[in-house]
Amino acid sequence: MRHPHLKQRFPSLGEPPGSLLPEGNPPPALSRISLIEYDAAQCRETVFDSLQQGLEYQPQLPMLWLNVYGLTDPALLQAIGQRFRLHPLVLEDILNSRQRPKLDDYGDYLFIATRVYRYQGDNQYLRPDQVYLVIGSNFVLSFQSQPLGVFGMLRERLVQGRGQLRQLGADYLAYSMLDAIIDDYFGVIDDFNARVEQLDKLVLASRDRFVLARIQRLKQDAMRLRRSLVPLREVLNVLTRGEHAQFQHGTMLYLRDAFDHTLHLIESLESAREVISGLLELYMSAQSNRLNVQMRVLTVITIIFMPLTLIAGIYGMNFDNMPELHWHYGYYAIIGLMLLIAVVLGLLFWRRRWL
Amino acid sequence: MRHPHLKQRFPSLGEPPGSLLPEGNPPPALSRISLIEYDAAQCRETVFDSLQQGLEYQPQLPMLWLNVYGLTDPALLQAIGQRFRLHPLVLEDILNSRQRPKLDDYGDYLFIATRVYRYQGDNQYLRPDQVYLVIGSNFVLSFQSQPLGVFGMLRERLVQGRGQLRQLGADYLAYSMLDAIIDDYFGVIDDFNARVEQLDKLVLASRDRFVLARIQRLKQDAMRLRRSLVPLREVLNVLTRGEHAQFQHGTMLYLRDAFDHTLHLIESLESAREVISGLLELYMSAQSNRLNVQMRVLTVITIIFMPLTLIAGIYGMNFDNMPELHWHYGYYAIIGLMLLIAVVLGLLFWRRRWL
Amino acid sequence: MRHPHLKQRFPSLGEPPGSLLPEGNPPPALSRISLIEYDAAQCRETVFDSLQQGLEYQPQLPMLWLNVYGLTDPALLQAIGQRFRLHPLVLEDILNSRQRPKLDDYGDYLFIATRVYRYQGDNQYLRPDQVYLVIGSNFVLSFQSQPLGVFGMLRERLVQGRGQLRQLGADYLAYSMLDAIIDDYFGVIDDFNARVEQLDKLVLASRDRFVLARIQRLKQDAMRLRRSLVPLREVLNVLTRGEHAQFQHGTMLYLRDAFDHTLHLIESLESAREVISGLLELYMSAQSNRLNVQMRVLTVITIIFMPLTLIAGIYGMNFDNMPELHWHYGYYAIIGLMLLIAVVLGLLFWRRRWL
Amino acid sequence: MRHPHLKQRFPSLGEPPGSLLPEGNPPPALSRISLIEYDAAQCRETVFDSLQQGLEYQPQLPMLWLNVYGLTDPALLQAIGQRFRLHPLVLEDILNSRQRPKLDDYGDYLFIATRVYRYQGDNQYLRPDQVYLVIGSNFVLSFQSQPLGVFGMLRERLVQGRGQLRQLGADYLAYSMLDAIIDDYFGVIDDFNARVEQLDKLVLASRDRFVLARIQRLKQDAMRLRRSLVPLREVLNVLTRGEHAQFQHGTMLYLRDAFDHTLHLIESLESAREVISGLLELYMSAQSNRLNVQMRVLTVITIIFMPLTLIAGIYGMNFDNMPELHWHYGYYAIIGLMLLIAVVLGLLFWRRRWL
Amino acid sequence: MRHPHLKQRFPSLGEPPGSLLPEGNPPPALSRISLIEYDAAQCRETVFDSLQQGLEYQPQLPMLWLNVYGLTDPALLQAIGQRFRLHPLVLEDILNSRQRPKLDDYGDYLFIATRVYRYQGDNQYLRPDQVYLVIGSNFVLSFQSQPLGVFGMLRERLVQGRGQLRQLGADYLAYSMLDAIIDDYFGVIDDFNARVEQLDKLVLASRDRFVLARIQRLKQDAMRLRRSLVPLREVLNVLTRGEHAQFQHGTMLYLRDAFDHTLHLIESLESAREVISGLLELYMSAQSNRLNVQMRVLTVITIIFMPLTLIAGIYGMNFDNMPELHWHYGYYAIIGLMLLIAVVLGLLFWRRRWL
């Protein structure tokens, strides 16, 4: 059993805070930057191939969503930071691949760090991915390491003009992104629950020691998911208090709804944790039960055979004067006696349910 | 052991919030809508067979209770929503069959989500059912998936004019509905306690492994009930603070009483959880006790028979010069010695209480 | 093991709140109502035999203490309620024999529900009894199911004019009643502690399985006492905040003292719970220790006898050419060898402390 | 194992609060009252032999420290109470030998109850002692049951004029007393930690059952110390808020320091509790380990000897036609076979580390 | 297993608070005092060899960082205290080598106590080191027992003029020091996690008892780190509230960032603690599993050999009339029967997976 989440890369000792060094997971092959401009009537998407191209571009429509993924190039980030006047700490946080979910209010814009998870293919590890949002009055920047994953459907809705996404402002777009992240958790917790149920069936049937290791891993998965969801809940809780100018009053109801969903997710995790700890108890008890059965069998067999062996031993003694030995039916009588003893003891144990 | 509550259907990924898709349990055969109008003097009940019929109907009396069950038709719900000017999020919540108990204040009306439970027939699963209330200044809407169940007696009292239900306003009706829901919990927790007591008797008597699985299930039932009751308590706690215009001052005392009842229920559940965890300890200890008894028996039997078998073995040796073998009473002496050893060891163990 | 506190009778489903149906324990043979009137100078006690008699009576002195016990007659309670203008919910609470300790402020008077406990005779159950107080500006009503028990000494002090009870107002009488209830808890927790100590002595000595059941029961008793004391502490905490007009400033110090006593009681219970969970661990360990001892004995005996039996078996073989068999002292040599092996193994185990 | 702290004497049932009955531990032979008067320049100590003598005495210097120990005489206390105008509840609390640490503000003076502990001689019990302080604007009264113990060094510093004790007012003296009490805890927790370390060494070495009982006792000691320190921390926390006129602003920094020390002590206890619960786990595991070792030995020995015994048995059979028996080297071959089997099995177990 | 953190030296009983006695770990060979003066343009470092030299020195530049290590000389500290007008309690705290992390506001300056940790060489103990900061408006004093360790890189950045350290005031220097301390924790927790992972691999493989002792030690390390980090988080939390004049508004964002890092560290520790408690469960279960395997083997071997031994015993009996003995192939038939029984039983156990 390995604990991948214990291996965390931290800021190197003594570096000045705010210095931009890429950290964390190996970078994907290529960074990709796409800009979606929109107003109530239209929507235009531009994908930038080079930093230069991006710096020269002048957007035409009032609302902007800049979506960046696989970003590991400090220079690129620096350029974006200058364009949108971001604080160096924001840039440092974005480069750092292990950030707790949090909300920082920098006055002109909000910085929100969140994390999503994915169960990967055959190996059973829960892979985290950081998602960062910068929410200004008329723009949203989103940063993640994998292409569009979480926001794919949202981009489609925006481009196709479905729902009221274009009518409402940047705050509704930001809410929709948080909502997409929460929906993503529903998916991964579904996966997680499926694993729990699957393990549940194994616990009583199997005897192998790896059941326990798998229970432990699921327990840790639950902890990790919880540790990402609880601060996310706090972020939403803070947002619903309505103290941030970026979010208008009308969006509050939606944020409150998203907040309720995080509560729901956290309760679902609590539920799963209890099931898992029940599995642990079942496993322990099954182990002890098996020992009980083995010992019962050993005891019964020993008790039945010991007297028989003793009798055989007695009539194997070489005393001169052992009258039974000379009776014609002595041998048959003794074999009969042995059978009788075995049957009587067997019945006895059967009645006491030891067999 | 299956964990039905782990299988939850969540909003599908990326759908715009507020879109109306029916979710959750399979629908009952038919939706049913009934409207009860009343004032202090009279009360009239109308059952609608079609949406059209309902939309055309004009109520005559000032107070309205619209009771809807089995609702899975988004169009129908949309119509009701327009008639009473409900926010899309309310409609979405009502269609979602897995909603945490909560209270949302939408200004003109309050939306309260609650959940009730039922132990079903032979299979032992605790089946949840959502109950939603929308409380306006002169109307109450109630939504549930099963016909009238929880509110049956309440409807009767209203129709027959018993109690002060008609004299007091919509807030008293709403309180009475919350009270009926709480009463329902008293019933299901009674059922739950009966199961705990029944299991209590089984723990020491039985040896089967399913006792443990049943203990685990009861533990999870307790958790689920608790997880529904605690937010319900919070809803009542918020209501008793008297900040909602829908509830008049005179109803506060009743709400406080209902709040006390939820406290009582939660404590009763805590109590049951402690009993259950005591059962777990008893079960574990009974298991270990059984092992102890078996090992004691094995040890005693082995200790008694081993020396006897050795003696028999010794006198089965074929040495030329073994004088005892030639004594006339040698055989009888040795058999006597064996009996003596067996009796002495038996007494010894009996005095040490190993037998 | 039965859990009497799981069997609770709850309000019947759907009844209008405030309807007066007697509930809970079977009634004592007779209700009894006594009225004590007093001022600083004198004190008069009247016992009423019938409802009519009570309704007609006009008290002469300014301070009133109406003490009712065994009350299960709704009509009687209704009459008292009308005379002192009590809210229907108060009357409902008094008839309900399972009320959480609480304080309700009805403006003109305070309603306090408390609970006392008694260990009964030979059977070991902790029997609860409800005590209700209604505290007005110049009267105190007390309701309980058993005759005077808790307030016996208080009544005597009042009648005999001891202490400053008559000089101070109704609030000091009410305080004295709460103090008497707390003193009662000191008594029952003394009893409880005696039981814990008694069990402590049994745990290591005895092997019977009922020790565990008794540990579990004591644990549950501790929980029940705690669950009554914690809300009682809250009642006193609220009273000491001095927001209730019924209690004058001078009485605050006494209430704070009573509050300290409840803290003390709760800590004493915590202490006992830790002792009990220590007992559980001792019991479990004693069980496992016993298994250890048995297995050690089994192992030692087996190891000593197995080689001896093998040797005897070897010299019982029927090979033609076994020179030892024909040595004159062969038999004695082998017996000597067996003794030697037994002694050496015995010493070995003795040195390793296995014997 | 006895739990001395479970035996607590409580106020007798129904007595009027404030009545002065001595309670608790048996009194020391003699009460002793000493008065220290001082100002910045001088300091005078007077010891009173009789109550009369004390009542007549008129102090000359502005600051007073009246130190009383072994006080069990209600009349004496009453006299002191009248002289310093103490509330009856203060006097009752002082006579009660089991008082939770607390701070009561009586306006003119503060009443502080604290508790100190001592490990006594050979028997290992933690003996509590109550220390009460009454802090007025120019006097401090201290009450304890043992002679000067805790305040010995403080008295010396005051008499010898060391430090700034005489320069600063009664509040600094009171602070110094609290500090002395906290220092005393540092001592007793040192003792406690020494016991924990001592037990740590025993756990793996010893097999006796009393290790567990001692672990349990230490756990309870930790609880008791904690239960005295936590309210003491609260007392200091309240004092540092600076709402009490008796303490001047300059003393606040010192009180905050004392508050930090109580935090430190409580953390040290937490630490010790974790070590103790680790000891419990080690003990349990050592027990189970020992069982494992025994069973391994039993298994190995049984597996080695069983086939050998069977072989010996086979060649002890009396069939007419058993050719091996007649081979000249048959006996030696079989003995060789037995040795071979034993060696091979032995090596097998040795390689699997069962030996 | 020793618990070095239980051995703490506390202030000696009854000493006046504020008296300067060196305490704690043995002093390093030599104290060392270095002063760094700087402004935005330049930076000068001076190392003092004697107290006299330091007292005479007059700094030229506005910002001062006085870094003291290995300080155990009360006279020296007294001199520093007078120069910077420090309160005696600050000096006492600095001499005390066991101080909880805390923040004290003395008006003109802030006093911050923190603690760092180091895993030392081969022996596995976590060695604590105290670091004290005094933060004034234009100076920072730092005290630690080991040379520059934590602040080495920071000093270099300051001297070389890297980053914005010189441009910003003393508050940014103080923040940078706190940041360096937090970075140090990232390092030690990395070490700690490496140990946890290393142990993880040992748990299932090894059987030695010291695994458990090592698990216990890691658990205690986690506690100790946590106990230092939680109050450090509180210190930063208080600082970010911005109520201290020493820290300017611009530094708040950086402090908040440092605060987030402490949250991250604490969560990482929580994570590790859960992994460790999972290890404990794995260890316990592995132990019980091994017992299970042994018992299974014992049971199987016993069951197979017992009947065979009985058969051999039967045909070793000496009855006159045992026809089988005289059959020519009797011996071979019996040997065949024995083999048959062994094979059948073996198959049976193999199918039930007991082998």
UniProtKB/TrEMBL annotation, chains A, B, C, D, E:
Give residue spans, biased composition: Low complexity.
11-23
Fetch the InterPro entries from UniProt: CorA_cytoplasmic_dom, CorA_TM1_TM2, Mg/Co-transport_prot_CorA, MgTranspt_CorA/ZnTranspt_ZntB
Alphabetized CDD domains for the sequence:
TmCorA-like_1
Q: Please verify whether the record's keywords include Membrane.
A: yes
Task: Kindly give the membrane topology term recorded for this protein.
Answer: Multi-pass membrane protein
For the region Disordered, give the residue spans. 1-24
Keywords attached to this Swiss-Prot or TrEMBL record, sorted alphabetically, are: Cell membrane, Ion transport, Magnesium, Membrane, Transmembrane, Transmembrane helix, Transport
Q: Where are the transmembrane segments?
A: 297-317, 329-350
Localization annotation: Cell membrane; Membrane
Family membership: Belongs to the CorA metal ion transporter (MIT) (TC 1.A.35) family.
This chain's function reads: Mediates influx of magnesium ions.
The protein here is known as Magnesium transport protein CorA
Whose protein is this, by species?
A: Vogesella amnigena
Which taxonomic lineage does the organism of this UniProt entry have? Bacteria, Pseudomonadati, Pseudomonadota, Betaproteobacteria, Neisseriales
Q: Which gene encodes it?
A: corA
